[in-house]
Q: What sequence folds into this?
């Protein structure tokens, strides 16, 4: 049974607790008591305790009921103390609700303060002017007995307008505090990502694993909405309301970091994901960047691509290379990002950082404008579409050093990905442009370290004259052999990078096997290294 009475949005459903309270009032009960994994119980005037439902109430349902009815002004004290007491109106009846968090979950006790006859349930909506009242709308109600287990409510629901309520539009003051507590908890546990979804416990990604932040309980859609509005700049919040998606960077000064924040809406309500970006520029030594990769910061022109799946550390590697250029050169660095992640202060280079959506309309428009801004080094946060890739190639060919990212699983696959973006009649031209402009393709994958933490395995392809000819002729399948014979140039295949980490006892063989793109070749690499390990030996046999 859906009722649209939420004080903040007429799209939400009527609090499910109202159903139980309505029947407590009808039966003349002195109180309604709910506790985790027990049947809801009515305490009658004669002392009897009468079960209201035949089935126990799970703890998660009590969490949801609490999120629906708890006033915003009490949210902060509830989160800190686990106790709350307030008056709550359900139709014509008013109850005193007493909420208490115990080890098993949340206990709710409701005592009626008024016992008027329930012949009509009047619901009001905020924001409607008295000068233009809405007519009463009779709406038939019929409960699904199989789903609710409750008898029928009275047959009429009257929807009436209410006077304007400006306070309903105010942001809950504790929303910012809750967001900061969530972020601080993520940092304390050395997590990388924070996930908040409607009707779910917040989840942190810690060393690659998803772990619940159970101390915060289940977050309702109103909590998340208010928290999102408190964090976002006004123009970002407006964009989210219009598009149901938004990206921005949030500076968290208490944790000495920034966060890349994404807002979204799914089938159950709003949600957000935050990724931690340290204020300190990453150290190439701690990242384990080889000397050939560091020397990319000194190139005068060309295209350098850093690739890998989402969350593989591409932005971190690029930030380290850009910082090397910032320290070693005396040039103009221009970045186009969505959003700005690592902040590069001026060292020896002039650095301008532009954000898509705030400072430029798109990557392609920002990159097109970059040609008139006298850059020496251009960083393109993401090469998403054909036009952006085409302009990046032209920028590299015209004498600029261009760094960019792509979502591909291998350095050689990056070349195929770029060529395949273009129509067939232009692909030969793009091969020639790539052969002339591409200087290196770095592909990386992030793996769990033995003992905690994560480490990157990096595949590096440096374009030699021989490899440039293979790209020009469309013989990409021969590049692997050229990389195997060109290790003096810094070439390294992903399987070799994984093997080095296994031999250094930094990662488990199974972790490498899961992440490697070519498992058959990886097993052959293990065999050549006399490493006696077979993933099939770790699998349990199927029961007969």
A:
């Amino acid at each position: 049974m859906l009722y649209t009475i939420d004080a903040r949005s007429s799209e939400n459903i009527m609090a499910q607790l109202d159903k139980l309270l309505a029947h407590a009032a009808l039966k003349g009960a002195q109180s309604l008591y709910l506790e985790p994994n027990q049947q809801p119980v009515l305490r009658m005037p004669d002392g009897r305790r009468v079960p209201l439902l035949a089935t126990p109430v799970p703890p998660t349902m009590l969490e949801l009921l609490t999120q629906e009815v708890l006033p915003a002004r009490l949210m902060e004290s509830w989160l800190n103390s686990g106790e709350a007491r307030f008056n709550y109106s359900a139709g014509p009846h008013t109850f005193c609700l007493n909420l208490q968090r115990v080890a098993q979950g949340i206990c709710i006790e409701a005592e009626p303060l008024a016992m008027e006859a329930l012949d009509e349930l009047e619901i009001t909506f905020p924001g409607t002017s008295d000068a233009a009242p809405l007519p009463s709308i009779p709406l038939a109600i019929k409960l699904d007995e199989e789903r609710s287990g409750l008898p029928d409510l009275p047959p009429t629901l009257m929807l009436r307008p209410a006077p304007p309520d400006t306070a309903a539009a105010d942001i809950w003051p504790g929303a910012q505090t809750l967001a900061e507590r969530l972020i601080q908890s993520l940092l304390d546990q050395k997590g990388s990502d924070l996930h908040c979804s409607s009707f779910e416990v917040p989840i942190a990604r810690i060393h690659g694993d998803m772990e619940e932040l159970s101390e915060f309980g289940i977050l309702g859609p109103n909590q998340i909405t208010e928290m999102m509005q408190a964090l976002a700049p006004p123009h970002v919040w407006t964009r989210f309301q219009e598009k149901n998606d938004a990206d921005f960077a949030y500076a968290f000064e208490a944790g000495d970091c920034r966060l890349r924040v994404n807002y979204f809406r799914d089938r159950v309500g709003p949600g957000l994901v935050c990724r931690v970006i340290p204020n300190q520029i990453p150290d190439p030594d701690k990242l384990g960047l080889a000397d050939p990769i560091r020397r990319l910061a000194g190139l005068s022109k060309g295209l350098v691509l850093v690739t890998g799946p989402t969350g593989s550390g591409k932005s971190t590697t690029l930030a380290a290379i850009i910082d090397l250029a910032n320290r070693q050169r005396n040039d103009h660095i221009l970045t186009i990002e969505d959003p700005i992640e690592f902040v590069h202060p001026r060292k020896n280079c002039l650095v301008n950082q532009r954000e898509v959506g705030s400072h430029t309309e798109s990557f392609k428009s920002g990159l097109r404008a970059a040609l008139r801004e006298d850059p020496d080094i251009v960083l393109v946060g993401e090469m998403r579409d054909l036009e952006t890739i085409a302009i990046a190639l032209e920028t590299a060919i015209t004498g600029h050093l261009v760094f960019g990212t792509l979502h591909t699983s291998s350095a050689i696959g990056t070349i195929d990905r770029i060529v395949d973006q273009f129509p067939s009649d232009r692909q030969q031209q793009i091969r020639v442009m790539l052969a002339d402009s591409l200087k290196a393709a770095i592909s990386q994958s992030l793996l769990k370290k033995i003992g905690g933490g994560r480490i990157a395995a990096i595949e590096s392809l440096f374009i030699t004259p021989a490899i440039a000819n293979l790209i020009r002729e469309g013989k990409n399948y021969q590049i692997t052999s050229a990389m195997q014979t060109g290790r003096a140039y810094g070439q390294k295949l992903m399987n070799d990078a994984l093997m080095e980490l296994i031999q250094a006892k930094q990662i488990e063989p199974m972790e490498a096997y899961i992440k490697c793109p070519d498992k058959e070749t990886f097993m052959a690499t293990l065999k050549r290294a006399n490493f006696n390990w077979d993933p099939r030996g770790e699998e349990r046999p199927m029961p007969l």
